[in-house]
Specification:
By secondary structure, the chain is of the alpha/beta class. The chain folds into 3 domains: 34-136 and 281-317, Periplasmic binding protein-like II (D-Maltodextrin-Binding Protein, domain 2, 3-Layer(aba) Sandwich), CATH 3.40.190.10; 140-277 and 337-351, D-Maltodextrin-Binding Protein, domain 2 (3-Layer(aba) Sandwich); 362-550, Rossmann fold. It is built from 19 helices and 18 strands. The protein is globular.
Length: 551
């Protein structure tokens, strides 16, 4: 995606400056870390949904990579000068990458993968024969970044904090935090495993019994999660804008980089009862051409050398893996227990499903859908119906592949005005009837009328203002044209909303002939993000699926 910088305006003055710097930094990182429906991005990076896989070219290594590796581009530029290897990065979520490798879809498209961790991939037996060499390049543990005032309020000494202490603070209403979506972000998944291990008291790899025993405490813990996101970049941006969230759970390197580059002022806490660590293994695929495998070995050898290791730790604040290379200043050398990863895919997927459907706060989502007359062109309405139907999943849908249990889903189709407001709640344990009802509503969408974008957005905010306030709320706007009503009317409406109402972001999707500047204005105003599904750039179902990580 070419995400446009989220966040509203910050008033002037010294107090706002650190937040402004954080917003600027994160926007820069997010712009370079394009994701699954994006066009080509800076530094030779692109999203897997953005263009067809490129054919192998001598001296080029095609790599499916975690998006936080955008900060490695200067190091990779130096690697090219030293080795002659050009690295072409394509961003992916960890679980999506695992699926591509295990299914064989990655065989012809990529020569290597470079994820924060291969732990989930190793749970897929069909992937074992597809991996050749796997070499850790750097590491970073999961950590908690806490505002100093929250730390003082809790009376914590950073070196003594445990996951149980964090749980107690959250359960008592004394601590709130943001965390990425475990289904789409490995930092979120690693955090979920860390918390589940810490609260269950598991002495070895998590089992189903461990997760079940810890479920009541886990539900209390996730009640304190006030921000969710599909990416670390947008999470930090939303955190900077909100002001009412005490902490972030993310990789140590992400938190320290925000302190160094944007003066975020977070105290980085690594719970002493254990963490999960990302080791960023550069992994060659067995299907890669011989020349690519040789390029991969040359690149890996250089990246693990002292020059590259020092450059990596100084630039990214990840920890070096080569002996004799000192970690960057500020990296705590004290050891923490390494928490084991779940030992089977059933446990890992069960933990994710439990988080999605039981543990986390429920979601309330309004889909503001352009069903104007122009949607009849080029079967745009058919593509919209197909994308929405995909979100209702099937009987075999895994974690993150359909609307969640307890989620309130509202379809708000519009033309010259709002046509209908169709709301369903996905029933826990028995979602079939509500998902069928959503499918039926989608089938009934018909193109007619004009394009009242702003009036329809007002109706969406008013709808969300009448329901459960203790939920993640979001609005998804899909339009294929320019609005026929006035932006200034919506701006005035939004400015008059209570602060709680302004915390609902709009995630807008470029589609057909929609106006990029108009949608960028809406997402910037509301703290949302712009996703591109225009022809030749991305897909509508890919954009909708990616937005799920932010809801």
């Amino acid at each position: 995606m070419n995400p446009l910088r989220p966040g509203g305006r910050l008033r002037g003055g010294r107090a706002a400056a650190p937040l402004a710097r954080l917003l600027a930094l994160v926007a820069l990182v997010a712009a370079s870390a394009c994701t699954s429906s994006s066009p080509a991005g800076p530094g030779g990076a692109e999203g897997p949904g953005g263009s067809k896989p490129t054919a192998y070219k001598e001296g080029t290594l095609r790599v499916l990579a975690s998006s936080e590796l955008a900060d490695m581009q200067p190091v990779l530029d130096r690697a090219k000068k030293a080795t002659g290897v050009t690295v072409k990065l394509t961003w992916s979520g960890t679980l999506d990458a695992a699926e591509q490798v295990a299914s064989g879809k990655a065989d012809a498209a990529y020569d290597a993968i470079w994820l924060s961790s291969n732990d989930y991939l190793r749970l897929r037996p069909e992937a074992a024969g597809k991996l050749a060499n796997e070499t850790p390049v750097m590491s970073s543990p999961v950590a908690l970044g806490v505002k100093p005032q929250a730390l003082a309020r809790l009376g914590w000494q950073p070196g003594d904090v445990t996951w149980s202490a964090v749980h107690e603070a959250v359960a008592a209403g004394k601590l709130t935090y943001g965390m990425t979506d475990p289904v789409r972000s490995n930092s979120g998944f690693s955090a979920l495993v860390s918390v589940a291990s810490g609260l269950s008291g598991a002495q070895s790899a998590l089992t189903d019994a461990d997760v079940k025993a810890a479920a009541p405490r886990l539900k209390e813990f996730f009640a304190g999660q006030k921000l969710t996101s599909g990416s670390s970049g947008w999470l930090a941006t939303a955190y900077a804008k909100r002001g009412d969230v005490d902490a972030l759970v993310n990789y140590e390197s992400v938190l320290l980089s925000a302190n160094r580059d944007a003066q975020a002022g977070l105290t980085v806490v690594r719970p002493r009862d254990g963490v999960v660590t990302a080791h960023y293994p550069l992994t060659l695929l067995t299907a890669a051409p011989a020349g690519a495998r040789e390029s991969g070995r040359a690149l890996t050898e250089w990246l693990r050398g002292p020059e590259a290791q020092q450059a990596i730790t100084e630039r990214t604040l990840r920890r070096p893996v080569a002996a004799g290379v000192a970690p960057a200043v500020g990296l705590d050398a004290e050891k923490r227990r390494e928490l084991p990863f779940p030992g089977s895919r059933s446990v890992a997927d069960g933990l994710l499903a439990s988080y999605e459907n039981e543990l986390r706060r429920p979601s309330r989502t309004v889909y503001v859908l352009d069903t104007s007359g122009s949607m009849a062109e080029e079967d745009r309405i058919g593509r919209l119906k197909a994308a929405l139907t995909e979100l209702t999943g099937s009987g075999s849908s895994g974690p993150g592949q359909r609307f969640r249990d307890r989620e309130e889903v509202t379809l708000l189709p519009f033309g010259d005005k709002v046509k209908k407001v169709l709301t369903h709640v996905v029933e826990p344990g028995d979602p079939g009837a509500s998902l069928d009802a959503i499918r039926a509503d989608v089938r009934g969408l018909e193109p007619a009328g004009g394009t009242a974008v702003y009036g329809s957005l007002k109706a969406a905010y008013q709808h969300l203002g009448r329901g459960n306030a203790d939920a993640f709320t979001s609005i998804v706007l899909m339009t294929d044209g320019r609005s026929g009503d006035k932006a200034k009317d919506f701006d005035a409406f939004y400015a008059a909303l209570p602060e709680a109402g302004k915390r609902t972001p709009v995630f807008a999707v470029l589609f057909g002939d929609s106006d990029r500047a108009e949608l960028a204005h809406i997402t910037e105003l509301t703290g949302g993000r712009l996703f591109d599904a225009t022809d030749g750039t991305g897909s509508l179902d890919g954009a909708f699926e990616e937005i799920r990580g932010y809801q």
